[in-house]
Amino acid sequence: MKIFVTLFIVYFLQTGMGVCQQSAGAAAGIDKTVDSLLNLSNDFLRQRQLEKALECDSLAWDLSIKYAGDTTLFFAKCCFNRGMILWQKGDFTESEINFNRALHLREGILEKNHPDIALCIYHIAILDAERGMFEQAELKLLDAKSQFEKSVGKFHPHYSSCAKDLAMVYYVMASYRKSEVLL
Questions:
Q1: Structure confidence by residue, pLDDT tens digits, 9-29
Q2: What are the pLDDT digits (tens) for 129-170?
Q3: Which residues are within 8 A (CB) of 42 and not within 5 positions of it... i.e. 6 or more apart?
Q4: 21 exposure class (CB count in 10 Å sphere: 0-12, 13-18, 19+)
Q5: What is the reported pLDDT for 23?
Q6: For the purposes of burial, counting CB atoms within 10 Å of the CB of 105, is it exposed (0-12), middle (13-18) or buried (19 or more)?
Q7: Do residues 51 and 80 lie in contact, with contact meaning Cβ atoms separated by under 8 Å?
Q8: CA 27 to mean position of chain CA atoms
């Protein structure tokens, strides 16, 4: 039912945009539609319904490009979301491409040390670790941890996850003292 309502909204906006494309309300409508599609995609991702998640992301991706372009935060969200889906599908190469694209866009739009930038770096580091590139993962996790500390503080779950994953990377690299300090 939820996907039907969202798809109806998307259809309505696509067919009705010719009339009101110039208005600020139309832009807000697209922003809300893209956000709704990405939220729905994340719901499917949590349920491990990866094809449905990718379908919703693709709709959001297309709308974002068509009405706002491929240099916006909304498109960065689509890239990040697609990276998450592809990661769950086991396509690490395409996942990294999408995380890097989201990172590049966010770095150009957001202020330094924004948590969304750190989140991109964190996920790229985890991909590196999963592929056995521990030295690269270490450097990225140190960067992400520093950015999370500055943007959300040491008591935020993102900071804690990053520190834990950095400790695991140190452990795998046999840097037990560094690992112990973080745990």
A1: 554 444 444 333 333 444 557
A2: 999 999 999 999 999 999 999 999 999 999 999 999 999 999
A3: 53, 81, 84
A4: exposed
A5: 38
A6: buried
A7: no
A8: 22
Structure tokens belonging to residue 6 = 């969202």
Residue identified by tokens 């770096």 is 121
Dist CA 50 CA 82 (whole Å): 10
pTM, full prediction: 0.82
**How many CB atoms neighbour CB 22 within 10 A?**
9
Q: Exposed, middle or buried, 42 (CB in 10 Å: 0-12/13-18/19+)?
A: middle
Give φ, ψ of 103 to 5 degrees. Answer: -60, -50
4 or 94, greater pLDDT:
94
* Alpha helices per DSSP H over 90-114: 92-109
CB 162 within 8 A of CB 140: no
- Contact by Cβ (8 Å): 140, 128: yes
pLDDT band at 2 (very low <50, low <70, confident <90, very high): low
d(CA 179, CA 66): 47
